[in-house]
Amino acid sequence: GEKVEQHESTLSVREGDSAVINCTYTDTASSYFPWYKQEAGKSLHFVIDIRSNVDRKQSQRLTVLLDKKAKRFSLHITATQPEDSAIYFCAASASGSWQLIFGSGTQLTVMP
Amino acid sequence: ETAVFQTPNYHVTQVGNEVSFNCKQTLGHDTMYWYKQDSKKLLKIMFSYNNKQLIVNETVPRRFSPQSSDKAHLNLRIKSVEPEDSAVYLCASSWDWGGQDTQYFGPGTRLLVL
With contacts defined as CB-CB under 8 Å, which chain B residues touch A91? Predict the structure, then answer.
């Protein structure tokens, strides 16, 4: 079955710098790639997603890139702020699949 | 604004006991899910429920069972808890069946099995 690998378990950046979190997936049928954020002591909430019919999607300071050939997708956060500090989870799902497969999470710390 | 509600927030119990967790969503979504998040923050889907159709992750032990009265409610029952069941259980909902739609998560129920 599908496996999603999240390459950075931790990432530290200075406030104002950019952060990049990378994920790879195994199932070539995967077509939906969301990202979720989990702040300390809280639940997950959706931040951005991308579908396989595009290779780039931007929402304010967040950009998701998708490279279907390499089976890789990434989350780019520009002008980071302390409130961006959280665990970020990537996920993937194939068309017709009933489930979303999550990566292991990246703890992003934005230092003042 | 919370739209997926879970109770209790926290539950401590002894090995072998039965526990039940509640989940309600007010978004009008058609599909609900239960996830387990372990101490390393790894997320594993347990169940997906839509229009009375239940899909079970085959790795979930049989002591776990979901219970639904309507599409807005999906409870989780654990018949005889084991120490490895200690985790946070997250309920979620979405419009569409399957993993192709945004999921909205509840705050979670933390279970500690002594």
Answer: 99
Which residues in chain A are closer than 8 Å to B92, comparing Cβ atoms?
A: 44
Interface residues from chain A to B (CB-CB < 8 Å): 31-32, 34, 36, 38, 42-46, 49, 87, 89, 91, 93-102, 104-105
Closest-CA residue in chain B for A52?
B100
Confidence grade of residue B1 (pLDDT, cut at 50, 70, 90) = low
> To the nearest whole angstrom, how far is the Cα of A24 from the nearest Cα of chain B?
16
Helix, strand, or coil (residue B85): helix
Mind listing the pLDDT tens digit for each residue in B59-88?
899 999 999 888 899 999 999 999 999 999
Give residue for tokens 């967040």: A62
Give the residue among A56, A57, A63, A64 at the shortest CA–CA distance from A79.
A63
DSSP annotation string for A17-81: S-EEEEEEE--TTEEEEEEEEE-TTS-EEEEEEEETT-SEEEETTEEEEEETTTTEEEEEE-S--
A50-59: list long-range contacts, CB under 8 Å, 24+ apart: none
Q: pLDDT at position B16, please?
A: 97
